[in-house]
Predict the 3D structure of the following.
Amino acid sequence: MNETKFTPGPWKAIRDPLHYGSLSTVYAGSTEEKAGIGAQMLVQVGGWSNPTEQEANAHLIAAAPELYEALEEIIQDVQQTSTGDITGTGCWEALDKARAALAKARGEA
């Protein structure tokens, strides 16, 4: 696995009650249910999009560490178990996309 430079997970998306549900915030470093208790704020998701879209975006961002780790593990497992004869599924193209996504997450692309 490549060494990551981002804040370790888990991350949690929380709707900010001070902004009447119009802003979601992603926190890291805490298992507390209350926003900000022993946690580091990573990003606030807001803007002109509707609150439902903002919350969905915040949840996607919060899932990033787990998605990154899962994608890395899948790539390693396929590379270790594959005989090079995976056909009919587009697996090699999918692996290329997965590698490109991880490179983008590491700031390499």
About this structure: Strands lie at 11-15, 24-28, 40-45. The longest helix spans residues 64-81. The chain has a mean pLDDT of 74.
